[in-house]
Amino acid sequence: MAHGRFDNPVVAALAGVKDFFTKQKLEDELTDTVRADNKTCLITGANTGLGFGIAVEMAKRGAHVIMACRSQIPEAGEKVKTLSGSDKVEMIHLDLSKIESIHRFCNHLKENKIEVDITILNAGVALPKARMLDSGLEEMFMVNYFSNFIFLNLLLDKRIINPQDKKVYKPRIIFISSDSHQGSSNIDFEQFGKLNNYGVSQGISYYSYYKLVLNTLAMEFNRRINKPKVIAPIHVICPGPVHSNIIREAPFVLRKILGFIFSIVFRSPAVAAKPVVYMGISDAYENNTAKYLHMFNPKEMDPKVYLEEEGEKLWKYSFDLWKRLDDKAVDID
Hints:
Radius of gyration: 18 Å
Largest sheet: 8 strands, mixed
Order of helices and strands: HHEHEHEHEHEHEHHEEH
Shape: globular
């Protein structure tokens, strides 16, 4: 049975205490001269939390920022403009819990001839109990994993991410993950895409488990795109513990306990965004691929993430599920 590293949300939150005191090896490399001028940066889940922090920092550094969100339009975009001092910010509705919304979003970019240079797959949810979607899928499975499979396939198929035509800058793809994926179970393909009822404890376990599944997907995309040479770098990053509103649906008492821990040792979204921005625009991540950062520290992911046979199997199961749900499914192969 699938399981993640933690089955207790308080223990999971306290695991971030060590991160708070960890030396950040590459932090000094993100200077004011590291810029994103003339680049278009797409960020999912950018209306709040980490995604909002990334949007502000990218806009400050000269990027044209596309905030892909399902709420707070246009208020969040106006706040990003104010905080960044840039007007090169736009918001486009995207609900990653709905396949049709993903199609509409990608069609809009295609129709408006928008190509994306930096794609940051940030959106995610942490739920206190299972929630069924109209598609028959559970929401955390859909938003935290499966929507990214669909979304990235469509962005590549429609040449919104267009590595073949780039002569100077290679489009870069960043998966936002969590180091809590370390130690999660092997992917349970027998239960893949099926509804598993869960409560708070198992919910936090599934959260880290789906991060392992997501990281495995990132490595499989990398194999399919960047062989024999790197044409669109794909990297994964854990921004560390972030003081965000991801716990907004937790039970009241638990929300208060976690909120207290968050306020003391978790980083603000503005601070947590910086290593993500660094990985997204630094020249150090231009001509290589499949790198992993835990905040500003390079390290390896869980060894299971790199297994080719697991990546191939995950791709097959994901594409077969997409085809069953959507007659507009496409495969970049």
